[in-house]
Amino acid sequence: MNQSIILAFLSFIALSAQERRIEGLIGELFNASTKIEQDRIIKSILNLNPEIEDVRNLLKRGKRYSKNVPVGWNVFENLCIDGIKRPYHIYIPEDYDPDKRYMVLFDLHGGVGREELIPEKKFKKRRSLWVKEAKRGKFIYILPLGQKGAEWWTEVGAQNILSILKEVKRMYNVNENKVFVSGFSDGGSGSYYMALNHSTPFAGFLPLNGHPGVAQAGGNPVYLPNLSNKPLYVVNTGKDPLYPADKIKPYIEKMREAGAEVIFRVYKKIGHRLDYAKKEKPLMIEFMRETERNPFPSKLTWETASESLGRVHWIRIDSIADIGNNAEFKDYNPIIKTRRVKIGVYIDTKFKGEGVRIEKIAKNTLAESLKLRQGDVIIGLDDKKIKNIKDLREILSKKSPGDSVEIIITRDGERLIFKGRFKPFKPRPAFDREKLSGRIAAEVKGNRIDVRVKNIAKYTLFISRDQFDLSKDIEVYTNGRLSFKGRVKPNLEFILREAAENMDREMIYDNKIEIKVKGS
Questions:
Q1: Which helix (H) or strand (E) holds 40?
Q2: Are 314 and 464 in contact (CB under 8 A)?
Q3: How remote is the C-alpha of 150 from its chain's centroid?
Q4: CA 369 to CA 353: how far, in whole Å?
Q5: Is the CB of residue 313 less than 8 Å from the CB of residue 508?
Q6: What's the pLDDT at 399?
Q7: Best label site of 139, 228, 465, 507, fewest CB within 10 Å?
């Protein structure tokens, strides 16, 4: 008999009947996908009146995973928050062992703004990027699918990723401290979005040919200090017409200035392609092997303009408001001195003919001023022929603000020429700052927590005995003032609800401290 099976059996018979009952309920809790199910299970556990320490230990152990699960390649569906089911492809090592915890890599695809999901037959080609490494390195490889309205930099797209992670945890034994997000092009930009807004479940991020500025395209502003919480491995290329490395470099410098740990690799002679993959993948695998998430970091910083995005690990911004009592924080916002020119059109990605068909005209753009129309097909720019979107991007990448341009189109079978000039560009900050944001920075030293806040009226600290000595007082100072001093008593219902929400055996919280910030 397999040794792991024997050990599991001996462990099981050593438990009391009540412990076995609680263990079974905790397994159900980790499997529960709705709040109604979670409430029922939590009530059942509380009715047994167990010792908190026993429950904590069982939560850390987690559920018992089955060996009778699909392995190799599979395609599953996830119900997204917009009510649409979207598929995701997942590779599980063929010799999957339910008693072993597995590293996970999310790989986000590019071209995420298309109307329709990429067909399964075509998408299967995307699997090849990391599958050899997943087989050789014995890790779980996940490829979600996005589309227009569920881009990686929207909450529909981001919650899709987070929900998939929870679904995978319900079926497979995941190493919670070794979950990574990568992606190419739009997928690289999506990796930045996850790092900027949802970094807690992840150990690190690997954006490839992406741009951190795209992360604000969904409406949530970018705050680079948020990247200081997890390391990044970034690759860009010199001849990329979308996101050339020299345009990304100022952002990387600001990230580092803000405290982020960033490896930045540049391939000067490569375009918007993964031609560097053979050389880079072993280095990225090494980065992932050496990087492990700390579930209870002693230092955290977070900024957001949305209270729904207010949490990172053990701190949460609950109320954003300027009450006058503000700490000083630097805004790490790169100044853009040059920019990529745009005609101002949305492209019809379903168009199969020669040229680029316009799906929509953006407001206050060159296209609008020239009276281009929906349905026009761009076939030339200046003296160069446009066969596809790649040609258009390549030609535009060599244009500068203030340059003149001649746009050649076909409309209802007629060939038309429009002459115009790209708007001059004045240096400006890269990221919008129109919305009021709240910023928090906290540091733990023993049982003391020093917190600095700006534009925050209320925040919450999540307390774990894995980080604090709960037999002693905890002190919280906000902007230098004592705002809490006292014992924090473990609360079983709180422990269970947090465990059900986080689905993270490495990150068990015992209770919370809510702080109402005093005004000036």
A1: helix 35-47
A2: yes
A3: 13
A4: 26
A5: no
A6: 87
A7: 465
Measured CA to CA, the distance from residue 226 to residue 290 in angstroms comes to: 22
Can you read off the two tokens belonging to residue 92?
Answer: 């599980």
What is the 3-state composition of the chain as percent helix, strand, coil, each rounded to the nearest 5? Answer: 30, 30, 40
Per the listing, tokens 């500068």 go with 400
**72-293 is classed CATH 3.40.190.10:** no
Question: Per the structure block, which two tokens stand in for 8?
Answer: 């599991």
Distance CA(450)–CA(362), nearest Å, equals: 47
Q: Return d(Cα 73, Cα 127) in angstroms, integer.
A: 9
Q: Alpha carbon of 505 to those of 26, 175, 183, 265, 347: distances in Å?
A: 11, 9, 27, 34, 45
Identify the band that residue 423 occupies on the pLDDT scale cut at 50, 70 and 90: confident
User: Which residues sit opposite 79 in a β-bridge?
Assistant: 85
Over 90: is that where the pLDDT of 9 sits? no
Counting every residue written for the chain, the total comes to 520
pLDDT, tens digit (0-9, with 9 covering 90-100), for 338-347: 667 889 998 8
What does the domain layout of the chain look like in residue ranges? 3-61, 72-293, 315-334+431-516, 345-424
- Residues 49/465/451/252 CA torsion (nearest 10 deg): -120
What's the burial of 422, exposed, middle or buried (CB within 10 Å: 0-12/13-18/19+)? buried
| pTM summary value | 0.87
Please identify, in words, the CATH class of the domain defined by 345-424: mainly beta
Question: What angle (nearest 5°) sits at the alpha carbon of residue 477, between those of residues 476 and 483?
Answer: 70
**Euclidean distance between the first and final Cα of the chain, in Å?**
69
Among the listed residues 235, 257, 261, 258, the one whose alpha carbon sits nearest the alpha carbon of residue 248? 235
* Bridge partners of residue 481, in order along the sequence: 478
Joined together, the tokens standing for residue 502 give 């986080």
At 272 the three-state DSSP class reads: coil
- How confident is the model over 456-481, as pLDDT tens digits? 999 999 999 999 999 999 999 999 99
Torsion 272-278-280-286 (CA) sign: positive
